[in-house]
Amino acid sequence: MMCSTQTLEEPEVVLHFDPIAVGWRGVSHQDKGILSMELTSVCNTLLQVLVHIPAVVHWLSTSNHPASCKVKNGCLLCACCSVLMQLDVESVVKPDEFLNIMKDACDDPQVVVEDILLRLHSDYMSLYSTVRVSIWSERTSPPFQIFGGLWKLSAPCCGVTYKPFFTLKVPLSAQTIQLCLNGLKACDVCEVCDCPDMSIPTDCSLHTAPAVLILNLKRFLDDNSFCAKNVIIQPEITLLKQYLYCLRSVVFVNGTSPDLANFYPVTVCPMGVYNEFTDAAFKKVSVTSLIAKERYLQTSYMAVYELTKVTEIYLSTGDILKHILFAD
């Protein structure tokens, strides 16, 4: 599903017809801690991130999972639905099923978040295990409709290719996340072409914008050193000056070594309340602190944004954007 292609085709069947609902309106929300097991800070952090994305909460809460589940051994989709149910009725969430499935995950949330999204897609696709589904139809699954974007790349060796993505790696090239994103180049999107000539793409444009934009900041460098550059994570950003996104969560890193680091999230809740989570506990933080204190500015590791507005011309012609319901 995540492989590059040189052509685009219409899906022969759309797997998920319901609009992707963004924004908190009509979506239930509960701020509760998540009990941690040993060495699970990455999974706990990403689980809090997921349940603070309205598009994800709306999808899971309106799906017919787990009743329709066909996964025989450990369904991550069922596990996420269980967490949402616990958020409604329990004082503290115990995500045993989720953590058991992800027990072999690595210690880097930038890697694990892609593993989670691919696993959610795979478990969703188990509903269609008895039929042959093309790659184009697979990309109409809810995880891809919510998180999936598509780059159009041009390289001298093989012409135009289309590269799907769930996350974007953002170099720390400026003082704000917006300016860092503006400085993204074709070589950042796709370092080397897949063909034998290994050309670097010379041109890059966005074919499909994701409903949820995950930005991975390059804090750990190739030599495993840590870049503590101040970067302000703004409440709102634009992608290519056409798509407006609002902040849903930020993952921060505590530690300057990739082998010893642990992580924690700050989430943006309805009414603009910011909460910092540490396993089962959480506390409110101010927006001023988030954009002024060095402990936040120097340790931001991942930022998650949700689409809130797009110009009318792109809303009418921009592929999956036609299926987004703006609720805010």
Which terms summarize this structure?
single chain; 328 residues; 3-stranded antiparallel beta sheet
Rg = 19 Å
Mean pLDDT: 83
Structure class: alpha+beta
Beta strands, count: 13
Amino-to-carboxy terminus distance: 31 Å
The poorly predicted ranges are 312-318
The helical percent reads 25-40%
What is the succession of H and E elements? Answer: EHHHHHHHEEEHHEEEEEEEHHEHE
Broad shape: globular
Beta-strand portion reads 15-25%
Task: Tell me the number of helical segments per DSSP (H or I, 4 or more residues long).
Answer: 12
Main β-sheet description? 8 strands, mixed
Written overview of the protein:
This protein has 328 residues and is of the alpha+beta class. It has helices at residues 41-51, 54-62, 76-89, 96-101, 109-125, 135-138, 142-147, 177-182, 186-189, 287-292, 294-297, 312-317, and strands at residues 20-22, 149-155, 159-165, 167-170, 203-208, 212-217, 236-239, 243-254, 262-268, 274-278, 281-285, 300-310, 324-326. The protein contains twelve helices and 13 strands. The strands form three sheets. Strands 4, 6, 7, 8, 9, 10, 11 and 12 form an eight-stranded mixed sheet that branches. It starts with 19 loop residues before the first strand and ends with a strand.
